[in-house]
Design a protein that fits this description.
By secondary structure, the chain is of the alpha/beta class. About 30% of the residues lie in helices and about 25% in strands. It starts with 11 loop residues before the first strand and ends with a strand.
């Protein structure tokens, strides 16, 4: 897909397709019962796609709740994104974050008595909270086998009792699966344990308060596990990125959102014997067209893609051209076709499942996975957004998508 007015666009930018995001979200909703609501995961800058823009779009698309990992991410959505409604902080709350959790009205995840006590103190010291008639809402995470964070099952009753004793509203109880896509046996073990816990909590009447339950991440949603609970928590699938091999994931009809569009800032022909890049790892064998692009590992284009491991796709001829020499902090060079000019567009990352240029393809090349490649896309790379097949920028002041 080409866009008019190239001279108005930077020579390195991410093109994020929000039309594809809408399609992915609709696909996920079709996989869960009608009454199940969505907590959309927008942590890590919305998996590298731009959290303010993506969060505002998701809210406009009817997503019921959002979730981040840290208080800083939550505060950014509240203040800079002006996001109203529930925002969950899925990471186990640190006691030091308690005052900001209350200040920005973030729903924290409680797993420790230290965090619980700090939150209670912060609520008691917050004037606005004291004026509210409803108790402060929290969600409690129970560890059913992932063994990172969460209250241990045999300690849950006492922990819930202390939350209620301290006048907190335990609005939700949740868990997280260790490998819901690949390990059906272990996932079933976790699910059975969580199901037993839910039944016991429900039997105890949840302390007389309404309690929501949720467990389904992307893998669980696609496998039909825990989708009938109050919420599901899609993350990687919303962004169209595979959590497994491309051959298995592509038929599920999700669409990757992000393409990294680049143009060279310098094109030259080098004679035999010339070397390219730090360390002089590429020596020109015969006259060669070399194009330099304004992106490097500081932008998220990994140094592991040096010396031919990475390729750029030329949009003029749809062929791939290899990275030559080392990827540096701010610049990358390729062996380019002879017709290359400063207006020639390439894709450093393609919005598809290509084994060489897609997020997953690059992840495979460097021994990583889709999540890591996406979230490391640097903040200094501008994001532009496709809406109704037209390119927009997101105005952080007005919180509007403005046509380019």
């Amino acid at each position: 897909m080409e866009w008019k007015g190239k001279n108005r666009l930077p020579s390195s930018y991410l093109r994020i397709n929000l039309d594809a995001l809408a399609d992915n979200l609709a696909l996920l909703r079709r996989k869960v019962p009608l009454g199940t609501k969505v907590i959309a995961i927008v942590k890590a800058n919305a998996y590298g796609h731009g959290s303010l823009a993506v969060a505002n779009y998701l809210k406009s698309a009817g997503v019921e709740r959002l979730a981040v990992a840290t208080i800083r991410e939550g505060a950014e959505l509240r203040v800079e994104g002006q996001i109203a409604g529930p925002i969950h902080m899925l990471g186990s709350m640190d006691a030091a974050a308690a005052a900001d959790v209350v200040k920005y009205d973030i729903i924290p995840t409680l797993c420790t008595t230290e965090a619980l006590d700090a939150l209670v103190a912060a609520v008691e010291n917050d004037p606005q909270q004291q004026q509210r008639s409803e108790p402060f809402k929290v969600h409690v995470k129970v560890d059913t086998g992932l063994s990172r964070v969460g209250v241990q099952p045999d300690e849950l009753d006492a922990f819930l009792h202390k939350c209620r004793q301290k006048k907190l509203h335990v609005e939700g109880l949740f868990t997280h699966f260790a490998d819901s896509w690949n390990s059906s046996d272990f996932t079933l073990k976790q699910w059975n344990l969580f199901n037993d816990i839910m039944q016991k909590v429900a039997k105890d009447n949840c302390g007389g308060q309404k309690m929501y339950f949720h467990a389904g991440n992307t893998g669980a949603i696609l496998k039909g596990i825990a989708t009938h609970l109050d919420f599901v928590r899609p993350g990687i699938s919303m962004y169209g990125l595979p959590l497994c091999d491309i051959e298995t994931f592509q038929p599920l009809e999700f669409k990757p959102l992000a393409a990294w569009v680049v143009r060279p800032t310098l094109v030259k022909t080098l004679a035999a014997g010339r070397v390219v890049g730090y360390g002089m790892h590429h020596e020109v064998q015969s006259a060669e067209t070399v194009a330099t692009f304004p992106l490097g590992y500081a932008d998220g284009y990994r140094r592991l893609l040096s010396r031919g491991k990475g390729v750029f796709r030329c949009l003029d001829d749809n062929k791939n051209y290899p990275v030559i020499g080392n990827v540096s902090m701010d610049q990358t060079t390729i062996s380019a076709p002879a017709h290359t000019t400063l207006d020639t567009e390439f894709l450093a990352i393609s919005d598809d499942y290509d084994p060489d240029t897609s997020v997953k393809g690059i992840a495979n090349k460097i021994g990583s996975h889709s999540y890591e490649v996406a979230v490391l896309l640097g903040s200094r790379v501008p994001r532009f957004y496709v809406l109704q097949d037209k390119l927009h920028r997101f105005d952080a002041k007005t919180l509007q998508f403005v046509p380019v």
